[in-house]
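User: Run a structure prediction on this.
Assistant: Running it now.
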Amino acid sequence: MQITNQIGDQHEAATETGKGTKYLLPFILITSLFFLWGMAHNLDSILIPHLKKACELNNRQSTLIDTSVFFAYFIMAIPAGMLIKRFGYKNSIITGLLVFAIGAFLFVPAANTRTYELFLFALFVIGCGLTILETSANPYAAILGPPESSSKRLNLAASFNGLAAMVAPIVGSLFILSGKTHTPEQMAAMPDATKAAYLLEEASSVKLPYIILGTVLVLVAILFYFMHLPSMKPQHTEVETKPGFFSVLKFSHLSWAVVAQFFYVGAQVCITSFFIRIAQQGAGLDEKTAGYYLGVYGFLFMAGRFIGTFFLKFVKDYVLLSIYCIISIFLCLVAIYGTGIYVIYALGGIGFFMSIMFPTIFSLGLVGLKSNTETGSSWLVMSIVGGAILPYGMGILIDINHDDIQSGYIIPLVCFIIILSFGVFGHKVKNSVSS
């Protein structure tokens, strides 16, 4: 399969050859991937408090779950782009699904041995698979139609990522979280055999959900193998100057998008990673109830994706991004300084208003890149490493502040201020860029 980098030519080809109808089934299949990687990411929000308990971790150590997944994005983004260039979208998607599945199956030996390092390795493998999938699916969804509607298409596909944000916490609360919590004093008073059995039981609860997830991934990979995905081939022959991997950052709007995406992903992961903990500490909820509230957060995130997609028909994407950032900044202040259930309401509101940010930043960053689209996509995927770095910093900040979870939410607050800068002026495309 020959993969072109000329996104403008690809849009014209799609319009001329099929008026969009031949791309409906491929778009549906690609959209299913957004749901699957959404399940992986949102199960991490369950794993962080769960493995903190099962493996007896502090806040900083528990955020290594995020670090393992999102550091893989940084490591694998360039190889993923090379894989697409060499083997095409379809083969890259199948590879990503199978690597994702291997990581899910590795949860079985990790749980059987209650080895946190093996859990982290499994999550790193999952992250590698997710990187390949996202590097393939985001730009492919963007080119399956006219360029002026790429933001709408990405937001529509990403809405099913939002659906996973609602489903995953409910699944995790039902099948992973036990609802059993013990104080440090109670744990210290337990006989060694009882304590070991309790911790092993907690660790083992992750096996069934991840076995099912891995099996589904293999089945979807088989489906992709037998389905036809159209090759988006160029229809023009003009030669375009093509900057190298680093020189493509001379496109200032892409550089800004990379920075904004770094802080967006960091903010999102920070908010969800400590959601259950802040619900327990700030609102006095038990573990399972906090997990269900995380599912409500996911529902609001999903609703925000669909409603935001609708608003994008009438409002410029960068304008909507800026408005949503301002509201999210205000809600972060409520989460930091509020009390009781209002803290949870504020976090739910943030979920709604930040829902369109990732696909909007992604599509704004790719505007006008043409032959540099896949290189730009790799940079935007690499920027997801913010999800590895910022939550770790948040965990350190919380530990320094004697396990005060609310104090850590200053980090998402700063992130939204930076994203607002991108929405206001950083997104603007310059007329000419030297290579």
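The two ends are 28 Å apart (CA to CA).
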